[in-house]
Amino acid sequence: MVKIVVSRVLFAIPLLLIITTFSFLLVSLIPGDPVASILGEGATPQQYAELRAQLGLDQPLAVQYLRYMGGLFTGDLGTSISIQPGQPVAAIVWTRLPVTLSLSLVTLVVTLVVGVLIGLAAAMSRGVTGRVAQIGSLLGVSIPNFWLGVLLVLLFSITWKVLPATGYVPIQQSPVLWAQSLVLPVVTLGLAGIASVARQTRGSVNDTLSRDYVRTLLAAGTPRYQIVFKHALRNAGIPVVSVLGFLFIGIFGGTIVIEQVFAMSGIGQLTISAVTNHDIPVIQGVVVVTTIVVLIVNLAVDLLYFALNPKARR
Amino acid sequence: MSIELQATNASVETKPQKRPLRRLLRKPFAVVSIAWLAVLAILCGLAPWLPLQDPLQQNLTATLQLPSAAHLLGTDSLGRDILSRIAWGGQDALLGALEAVVVALVIGLPLGVIAGYAGGWFDQLAGRFADILFALPALIIVLALAAVFGTSTAVSMASLGVIYSASYLRLARASTLAMRNELYVDAARVSGISRPAIVFGHILPNTVGPLIIQSTLTFGAALLIQASLGFLGLGSPPPTPSWGAMTSEASLYMIQQPWLMVPAGLVLLLTILAVNLIGDELRDGSTASVKASVLERARPARAAAPGTTAAPPASDVLLEVQGLSVSFDPGGPEAANVVEEVGFTIARGETVGLVGESGSGKTMTALAILNLLPFPGTVTEGRILFEGRDLVGLPEKEMARIRGQRIGMVSQEPMVALDPSFTVRSQLVGPLRRHRRLSRAQARAEAVTLLELVGIPDPPAVLRKYPHELSGGMAQRVAIAIALSGDPALLIADEPTTALDVTVQAGILELLRSLQQRLGMAVILVTHDLGVVADICSRAVVMQKGRIVESALVDDLFDRPQHPYTRGLIAATPSLVDLGGEHEPA
Questions:
Q1: What is the model's pLDDT at position B480?
Q2: How far apart are CA B586 and CA B571, in angstroms?
């Protein structure tokens, strides 16, 4: 177990290094003069000089890079330029993180549970039901989530008034309201994932049930429910878990749109306003923090994979 | 029918896809999808020349209108014609998605082919490049680049193309790697054909199928991301129509005019759905169909005849098979039967060989006894009297009580016959508890005894192991232990030694012989190897093409084979010929 964690962390280091370098280079990628293009027209020379110094652009590139990386090690992600001028990016991201993490982690769990159950049901049924499941899952993957989100709000919040349309309530404040505020966003964000997990599970269960050992189990008089829920589900779970990392990346990216639809002030909304306001340090911070979150979740997924699959343990 | 289906699919799997388009045109969903995309492409592509209104023409006296003759899809909040805006916005959407696909293809394909063909450090580097592109949400990277380069469809879709190139890279690398090791590529190399000629002549043509599928999926994903950007206000700047931005505008007026939500969103959904459907159908065609579930049973073709104990069975007869026919096409011609009017009896404590070459119906006969015929196989005629009770058409619940408890089964490939995710202990304890009604502790103790019985040294250590940690011979011994867990009166061993090393085979046969003598159970040994039959069976039933051609005591069978097929089988078994002294030792 410790070995796995160590090897995964070692694997993550070069990745983190490259992504942070990419994020650093964002400033130099700006075509023309970055300071002028961030400030736009009508900036005073003093503002110009200040921003130039703040971005460290008066230094040679190598010095800038070392400073930037050094800052990252101490948790310094730079300073916001335009969204909350003068505020440390780390603090801004930190206050937004719980919203996005709640949304994406709850969605991940719901997606996994519901997707596996639907996939299992689809695998057990043949003919028309199987066809319906196939079309249904394609529909789930294809539906634009922002459109679905707005339609759900129209239905559940405006027409039936059963769920809040917007906003996020921290769990410390009220667990019930927290859960309520997450229902529509989670459904909207999770549908595509549910569909693809269901597809994956269906294929995987079908594959498992065609294996020889199922015959061994049957020949030993094992009841069918045990074969399905114990043996097939366990073996079918392995390929499903192996794509969980990608699923999370997809969900985390989806929060950008979902937070906008449901007016939740998380990382996604932060990113959008950073883009529209040319707040490059905030964008850099978002890229770095997102990478770290993704790496941590992937580590957890890897551990789950090893726990499930005896062949991967050595 | 399903057998045919699998046969055709197997041939599709081995051959590269032939005429994927023509096959596509036979699928109704695919045809509708292609038609929709064609209509959309014409509408968007010819928008400037079609009799559409100006997409930017505002009319503040006719805002938020429902569909009418003047405005087929109604008007938006500024009175602009929605149909026209969809058509004009579609140009941007479709071309943008195409741009992402092309960029991804242009970067990913060559890198992947080179990585797969050259290997070495370049392969490593390319693999890492792909890993990194996959490690972050695409939308975040696109947004980060949009912050730098500005929000335009062309830039966003190019960035997205770079990210998606990772999928193409992996795909092209995998196909190249697979193709590189194909014999005909080797042959081409040996015959001095140049590398580029091999790549363009042999490798690339074979990657076309998977690349088309990948491209449809990429196109759909790009369309979705682009619409998301439009919705977020990070697409093309406002007056320009875009599907995503139209949805966003519609959401502002959804209380006044819910209809506004329908056109742009639905067009987007239908387009992405159509692209995915096409990709799906192409993919289904290129992979073999799902193998039939072992759990699935055909409905019995011959009705159950409860309580048919024709004549009270002779006390020492354990199993009596009468006129058994098995078909995979019930209702079809009788010639299609895989087992035809087979009859034999097994006495208690007797070891009988069921002999024949592959396809002779011996395994199907054995599976029919346990009612485990693979779908859609079913017993069409005959009876299987086990301890005086007809097993044909017996309800699954009662059958489950006989399986493992009264009749045990050992199958051919021990390495795949055990569930890879559970320890030997767990796979033994389950049946032991079920069959012998033991507590967990008792079952664990009994598992040790059982493993000792099948000749496994150090049972406690083996109990902790997973199947992949066992050798073939060891796994087969465990499988035998599982089959014995219910103390069965009959053990069916289906080619129990075929998949094992020659040195291990003798040990397993010896084990079966000693178990049979010690436990006094009857054994049906299904095999193609007459040497094995000579070794441990007292009688043999020889099958050919689904019929029994000879049934005799083993000694008589070898001394005076009656049927030419039996003679052929004997002649084809070197060890037996050795016995007769007609064969020179090698």
A1: 92
A2: 16
